[in-house]
Amino acid sequence: MKDNLFMTADDIVEVTGMSIAYAYKLIKQLNEELEKKGYITIKGRVSRDYFEERLYGIRSDKSASK
Q1: Helix residue ranges per DSSP H, 1-66
Q2: pLDDT score of 13
Q3: pTM as predicted
Q4: What values do phi and psi take at 42, rounded to 5?
């Protein structure tokens, strides 16, 4: 799971313990934010880096080194 670029609702449930319905709502919200910034999104998936940054304030090693 950790090697995947994108997270699914099942991945979010596993990490956070929230319901599957809420995980889908969260993916939709995060994808809407990314679309407003001009990014292309995939329905039902969210960027792992963006998820971690928005929920936990975690920045990936890739973005921290730039």
Answers
A1: 9-16, 20-36, 48-56, 61-64
A2: 96
A3: 0.80
A4: -120, 125
Tokens 């997270």, residue located: 7
In which region does residue 24 sit, left (phi positive, over 0), alpha (psi from -120 to 50) or beta (all else)? alpha
**pLDDT (tens digit per residue) in 2-57:** 678 999 999 999 999 999 999 999 999 999 999 999 999 999 999 999 999 998 88
What's the Rg (C-alpha) of the chain?
Answer: 12
CA distance 60 to 17: 22
